[in-house]
Amino acid sequence: MNVTQDLSFLALITNAHLIVQLIMALLLGISLTSWTYIFRKMFAVRAARRQTVEFERSFWAGGNLHALHQTANGNRADSGALARIFDAGMGEFIKGKASYGSREALDVGAVLDGARRAMRAAFQREMDVLEAHLAFLASVGSVSPYIGLLGTVWGIMNAFRGLANVQQATLAAVAPGIAEALIATAIGLFAAIPAVVAYNRFSHDIDRLAIRFESFVEEFSNILQRQSR
To answer: For the residues 152-163, what does the mean pLDDT come to?
Structure first.
């Protein structure tokens, strides 16, 4: 008697062992979370790059630094990471100069060091925001295939255990169980591959932004030093 078995993707999932189904559900949840972070990070990095270009254009246009500082300070939420770094340094520079009262008592080195430290602190805060969830994407890329492999091993083990109850072991008897198990590996790869690609891309883009931020800190420090003379 020929027995026709339903080997469709949905049927293989619904007929899989409970442990394998739980592993598939875990991987699907991880994949959905990963894609959520991927889209959020994509928009965040794109906005940070656009805001950085806009602020650099305004800064190097040769306008008044105090006016630019007031603009950045009045719109911190939408001004961008580089504008907030500038705002931190310029604000500390103004406070440092005001604290000495007279120009004769001004300690230029101390004021510049304070402004540079303020910019470095702001730089670290902005980098923490940009790098948020990158560790999760890296973990998904490295762990998901092994979680899927666990489901595959469990499913194949369960399929071969089922052969003990039949008198004649054939490929047709074991094929559905193996197919069910291999779906777990496929879902694990489906979760891992986009996460690895996104992590590498975002890391590259964020590193380039970090270089631009660090260069600006040094260049702006030189400008403040010339203005303090």
So the answer is: 78
